[in-house]
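Dear colleague,

Following up on Tuesday's group meeting, I ran the structure prediction for the two-component complex that the binding team flagged. I've pasted the input sequences exactly as they went in, so you can double-check that nothing got truncated or mislabelled along the way. The structure tokens for the whole assembly follow below. Feel free to forward this to whoever is handling the docking comparison.

Inputs:
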Amino acid sequence: MAGGPRARMWAGDAAVGLVLAAGGLVYWWMAQSLAPGTAAAPGPGAFPRFLGLAIAVAGTGCAARAWLARDAETVAWAEPRALASAAALAAACLAFETLGFLATFGAFLSFQFRLLSDLGTARALAAGAGATGALWLVFEYLLGVGLPAGPWGF
Amino acid sequence: MGDSLGHLWSGFGVALSLKNLGLCLIGCLWGTVVGVLPGLGPLAGMALLLPLTFGLDPAGAVIMLAGIFYGAMYGGSTTSILLRVPGEAASIVTCIDGHEMAKNGRGGAALTIAALGSFVGGTLSIVGLMLAAPMLAEAMLKVGPAAEAVLMAMALTVVAFVSSGPPIKTALMILVGLALGTVGLDQLTASPRFMFGSLELVDGLSFVALAIGLFGISELLMSLDERLSARPKTPTLAELAPTRAELAEAAPAVLRGSGIGFVFGLVPGVSHIVSTFVSYALEKRLSKTPERFGKGAVAGLAGPETANNATTGAAMIPLLVLGIPAIPATAILLSALMVHNVQPGPLLLVERPDVFWGLVASMYVGNAILVLLNVPLVGVFVSLLRTPMAYLAPAVMAICVIGVFSVKASGFDLAVMAAAGVAGYLLRKFGYDVAPLLLAMVIGDRMEVGFRRALTISQGDYGVFLRGEAVQAFLGVLALVLALSLGAKLLGYRRG
């Protein structure tokens, strides 16, 4: 089952509620720069102002509900493999246009296979290269999806 | 009725063209695959293939995507029965008695009963779609902006109340979805809102990027927490035949499941999931041997599995006639239609009968394809489960990236997808359902536009949202749905 740090379920639940409530207040504050209009002609700011306050209230309500019902249930909130996998995905998304598909996904898939499977480094690199090549053939060559090339032309 | 049959005939002309038949087959097979694989569901499956539909005509695009939708409903039952692992949320109830049947050596019969129930439920719901949609479309043509705003608000209220989680959590997700939907140029004044000077946000946040992130990526990250260790036994062809007694027990449950699935399929939100629980509770209540439920009762498998598939046809009614995606998967269909400049709504039947009736006819064809292919090919689909997540998850992530990038060739959308994936992972860890967020984001702009237009026309009179036949009809439907939801919950509590 899941490893990694565990958090009280209610604490995580309350934290999500509070973060969203804070986000709602920021959204409401940003909506102040949009014209609210009048009752007979509501402007682009009217709906966001209402939404910002409603998010703040509902988020606080969720946090209060979690705090009132606090129990001993825990949840693994940051499973190390999932976090590493997510970080690698984020890096691949950022590098995709700059480094191109083949280099980015060769590295991404090799890393993921090494992280998630019991393959050694050399086999993970080979599997990553093979899978990247197969994906390139299917999407670029067969389906005609325009995948980006890197600075070295591929 | 005569008109509908005539249109259906022309719809079969569209659906049975060689190209559309092939697209339907591809959709059904891919849908079954994503339904079978834990970590992928109909929404992620449809979102992944959405970019590939851009080069197709609108009818072909929706035929393929709808095939994925109902194919996934079929596929979800395989893992539920053989492994007690629901391929998607609506198959959770199927696990209870379906897996018990498999443990009792009746796994093959359970798969056949699930496939036949799915076929009957799916087909009857398409008949309902065919009969109800034209009447509803005609009525909707008389609806003004106030009633449209009330309709959208009603849909979101229903989602908050029928969702499986606490209403306040669902309401928070809906509000966040509405807020995300305000990003981009204001539809009435073209004023930029929350764009931070970025041209990437002129059309708002990418629905596809958010959908794949919130559902596909977050599901894959969740699946890395777990490991499948069981190795399913593939039933032989001889084991697939149910006995006469099993068929006799399944038949009335299938008919009741069809009705429950159709009614709940009309309700926005998580109706396909709720319908399975209601069907299970009803079958247990009506059974002469309720003690067999949980130990391999055929009706406990047949009813919910049928209800699950009967929601597919019904869920198309709010989408095609009202432009409201009842469940997240149909929001992908909405995106596909809008990419092709086809606006779902009451005029769809008049302006694009080829799309509407082609889709209806293709659903009949697709259901037949699924029942003919899925039972004999069950061994092939089961073998997919032997692919370790260690290889599957990275490959699917790569396909997600390619799928999102191919929509607009935008690196910004990839960042949105990755952020949505992590956000969805954390939200789901702490019990927040992300489906209402996506629904709210899709229909929020129409609700806001209807609200502002209605107030402008009525010169600021808020009473406009309570007057008029259409508004009162929608409010009546809202009251009815809330009462049904309450009744269903009470029934569930009483029968455990």
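The two ends of chain B are 42 Å apart (CA to CA).

Cheers,
M.
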